[in-house]
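hiii so um. not sure if this is the right channel but i have a protein structure encoded as C-alpha cells and i wanna go backwards to a sequence. like what aa goes where. can anyone help
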C-alpha cells in the first residue's frame, strides 16, 4: 500500500517548462525552442506566459495584451503539450518573474517543478532582473537556449556558437554576475532560428512577408486585426 502511494506521489510530480515572453508577436523560434526543451528534458508540458506589463520594456510601444495572448493561443493550439497562462496578463502590476513564480506555485501546488526557459540574450541580463536570487531559488532549472546573433560581440561570448555546452569558462563568468546560477543552469541545444519579433513587426509595417516565420493562424490574426501597420 505504502509503495502504491509512493508511486502515485511520484507520478503526480509535474515538470513544467515555463516560456515567458512579450510575444509581440509569438514566432516559430519560440515554438521550436519550447518543443526542443520539452523533449530534451522530458517535461510534462510547456506553459507559455505572455507578459502583462514587461518591467524592462516600459518605454516600448506594446501591442495590447489581449492580442498578444490571442496570438499565443492560436500558435500553440495544435500541440497538446503546450498551454498558455493568463497569470501575467491578468495581473495589474509589472510582470516580475519572481512574483509570477510565487503565484504559479499557489495555483499548481508543491508538486510542480518549474523549468524557466530563457534565450541566451535574456540570460545575459538576468542579474539585472527584479530579485534574480529569488527566481533561481524557485526553479528546478533555468534552461538556456542559444540565439543567433548573440555571440563574440557580447562580454561573455556564446557557448552555443562552439557546440561546447560544457565549457566551464562561461560558468565562472556567469557566477561572477549572479552567484548560484550555475547550480540551476541547464543548456539545451535548440534549433538556431534567426527570427525576432522586432524584425517581424518591421516586416509587417514595410509590407514584407512574414509567412513561414510563424504559424499561419498568427499571420492571419495579424492581418485580420491590422496589427503592426
Ligand atoms: N530566435 C530565438 N531563438 C532563441 N530564443 C529566442 C528567440 N527569440 C526569442 N527568444 C527567447 O524567447 C523569450 C521571449 O522572447 P520575446 O517575446 O521577447 O521575443 P523576441 O523575438 O526577443 O522579441 P523582441 O524582438 O520584441 O525583443 C526570451 O527568453 C528570448 O530570449
Ligand atoms: O522579472 C524581471 O525583472 C524580468 C525582467 C526582464 C524579463 N523578464 C521576463 O523574461 C521573459 C522574457 O522577456 P522578453 O523581454 O524577452 O520578452 C518574460 O517572461 C519577462 O517577463 C522578467
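sure thing!! here u go:
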Amino acid at each position: 500500500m505504502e509503495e502504491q502511494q509512493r508511486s502515485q506521489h511520484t507520478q503526480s510530480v509535474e515538470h513544467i517548462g515555463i516560456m515567458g515572453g512579450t510575444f509581440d508577436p509569438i514566432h516559430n523560434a519560440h515554438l521550436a525552442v519550447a518543443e526542443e526543451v520539452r523533449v530534451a528534458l522530458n517535461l510534462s508540458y510547456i506553459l507559455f506566459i505572455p507578459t502583462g506589463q514587461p518591467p524592462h520594456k516600459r518605454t516600448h510601444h506594446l501591442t495590447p495584451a489581449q492580442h498578444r495572448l490571442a496570438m499565443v493561443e492560436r500558435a500553440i493550439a495544435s500541440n497538446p503539450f503546450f498551454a498558455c497562462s493568463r497569470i501575467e496578463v491578468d495581473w495589474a502590476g509589472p510582470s516580475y518573474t519572481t512574483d509570477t513564480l510565487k503565484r504559479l506555485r499557489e495555483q499548481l501546488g508543491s508538486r510542480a517543478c518549474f523549468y524557466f526557459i530563457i534565450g541566451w540574450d535574456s540570460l545575459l541580463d538576468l542579474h539585472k532582473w527584479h530579485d534574480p536570487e529569488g527566481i533561481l531559488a524557485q526553479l528546478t532549472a533555468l534552461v538556456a537556449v542559444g540565439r543567433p546573433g548573440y555571440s563574440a560581440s557580447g562580454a561573455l561570448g556564446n557557448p552555443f556558437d562552439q557546440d561546447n555546452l560544457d565549457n566551464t569558462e562561461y560558468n565562472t563568468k556567469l557566477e561572477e554576475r549572479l552567484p548560484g546560477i550555475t547550480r540551476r543552469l541547464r543548456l539545451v541545444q535548440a534549433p538556431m532560428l534567426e527570427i525576432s519579433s522586432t524584425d517581424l513587426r518591421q516586416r509587417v509595417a514595410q509590407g514584407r512577408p512574414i509567412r513561414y516565420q510563424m504559424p499561419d493562424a498568427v499571420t492571419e490574426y495579424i492581418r485580420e486585426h491590422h496589427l503592426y501597420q
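oh and Residues 3-194 form a domain with the Rossmann fold fold (CATH 3.40.50.620).
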